[in-house]
Design goal:
By secondary structure, this protein is an all-alpha fold. The protein contains 23 helices and 2 strands. The protein has a two-stranded antiparallel sheet. Helix 7 packs parallel to helix 11 and helix 20 runs parallel beside helix 21. The longest helix has 27 residues. It starts with a helix and ends with a helix.
């Protein structure tokens, strides 16, 4: 294994991440909130550390294999999440523990959106902006950005790209060159962010709030600058804008590229995609069930208000954003539990959403149908097809393996939380919220995670990493085969 080459790359990436600290420092200067020093200090520390890792190994530019790519991704997300906690530790407001600082940083970068902070309105603007921009960086993945703008890494970018991009099929590229593919992803991502910010601004948000919430919306993160989340604005228009951009961001970005790469907008690319149809059908079904039960229980004054709340919470939770406009945990118990389970499905592959991804659930359903047919016709040969293309059995097997690993990690993390003294409902929802990169849970974590004990928070940090790196990227490092020459 090319250890020195790996150290060189991690040093470069850490130096790249240090530059991001200058943006919230600028925000602190603009608003004169006195919170700029922690970010400038963090910038200097990370730049020096990155240089110390890079300089002694600067001439080690060797082609890396797939397993080195996995190790770089895991190392960098771990190092980056740890480095991201420095501004929280150095800032006098908020005054939080080391565990809470790490939790908030990892929650932001993995786009989980679970927070330990309260009274957000009293925090400096720079800290609020930093929390939001952490999610924006993590939404598409800083590694993909690095592949796009840092060809000086001197490696085959496909190794990093495959380890970073979510979904069961890792080899598809939108352009012939992997660096160009990464650039296209970030162009789409940036364009959606700008459009979302403008829409929020026109709908009545301040410029600061519009920018901050566009970051967490397009990243499907869920952080807000207010304790009441999107409910602070009490605006059906803002709710609808959020829903639209969450649905767009939860779709495969390759579809957006295909739809806009032709002359004008070609919506046929969306409808021809089986995963997109399944995703939208699932959203519609979930909305009908939620709205029907809210109308039946008459929890709101008008049907319009009930529909607005049902639509917003359905899309927010099922896409793993985690924004709230109301205390959905106080709805009839069936609905919060249903929405929590919907987060296990999450968004489409190649999107910024969390969960297991719609394509994997679709493949599991098709596999189940095939087994039912085999019961009736044992000797018949059936193939699983997506968009009239037969999938290799290797892909189907990988989906089953992912599902089994996902369930195993979930059970282990849940048992770990229960062992720390957390009740069963809170443990279940907390692991579901972090492993699916969702954010809010039920029980003691319905609003925030500040009351969770320190041991449980470290378990949940690990769950966030497993969810963001899609289980196998992190799990493969725990196998003896990975470390054999």
């Amino acid at each position: 294994m090319q250890i020195r080459s790996i150290i060189r790359i991690v040093g470069l990436l850490l130096a790249l991440f240090s530059l991001t600290m200058l943006v919230p420092a600028l925000v602190a200067f603009i608003y004169r909130d006195g919170a700029g020093v922690p970010f400038v200090t963090t910038f200097v520390v990370l730049l020096i550390l990155g240089g110390m890792l890079w300089f002694p190994n600067r001439y080690h530019k060797r082609e890396l294999k797939a397993r080195e790519g996995f190790l770089i991704v895991v190392l960098f997300w771990t190092v980056l999440g740890s480095a991201g906690s420095l501004p929280f530790l150095l800032s006098p407001n908020p005054d939080i523990s080391v565990t809470d600082a790490f939790f908030e940083s990892f929650s932001g970068l993995t786009t989980t959106g679970a927070t330990v902070l309260t009274d957000l309105e009293s925090l400096p603007k720079a800290i609020l902006f930093y929390r939001q921009v952490l999610q924006w960086y993590g939404g598409m993945g800083i590694i993909v950005l690095a592949v796009a703008i840092l060809p000086v890494l001197g490696i085959g970018g496909m190794q990093l790209y495959r380890a970073e991009i979510p979904g069961p099929v890792k080899d598809s590229k939108m352009t012939p060159r992997i660096a160009e593919t990464a650039k296209v992803l970030w162009y789409i991502y940036l364009t959606l962010t700008i459009l979302c910010a403008l829409a929020f601004w026109f709908a009545g948000m301040s410029a600061f709030d519009a920018i901050c919430h566009s970051f967490s919306t397009v990243a499907i993160g869920g952080f807000s600058t207010y304790d009441a989340s999107m409910g602070h604005f009490n605006s059906p228009t803002i709710n609808m804008i959020t829903v639209v951009f969450l649905l767009i961001s939860a779709c495969n970005f390759a579809l957006h590229f295909a739809a806009f790469s032709t002359r004008g907008l070609n919506l046929h690319f969306y409808w021809r995609d089986p995963e997109f149809r399944t995703f939208m059908g699932f959203q519609l079904l979930l909305l009908l069930v939620t709205f029907g039960l809210l109308a039946y229980h008459q929890g709101y004054d008008t049907w319009t208000e009930a529909f607005d709340q049902a639509l917003f919470q359905t899309v927010s939770i099922s896409t793993t954003a985690g924004f709230t406009t109301t205390g959905f945990s106080e709805w009839p118990l069936f609905l919060p539990v249903l929405l929590m389970f919907s987060a296990f499905i999450g968004g489409c592959a190649g999107s910024t959403g969390g969960g297991m991804k719609v394509i994997r659930i679709l493949l599991l359903m098709l596999q189940g149908q095939r087994e039912l047919k085999r019961l009736i016709h044992p000797r018949a040969v059936y193939t699983i097809k997506i968009a009239n293309r037969a999938l290799p059995q290797r892909v189907v097997d990988a989906v089953w393996g992912f599902f089994a690993a996902y369930a195993l990690v979930f059970v282990v993390c849940m048992l770990g939380l229960i062992a720390t003294g957390i009740d069963e409902l809170t443990a279940f929802s907390a692991v579901a919220a972090t492993l699916n990169n969702l954010g809010p849970g039920l029980g003691e974590v319905a609003v925030h995670f500040g009351e969770v004990n320190a041991g449980a928070k470290w378990v949940l940090i690990i769950a966030m990493l497993f969810g963001r790196l899609e289980i196998f990227t992190l799990l493969v490092l725990l196998t003896p085969t990975f470390w054999r020459n």
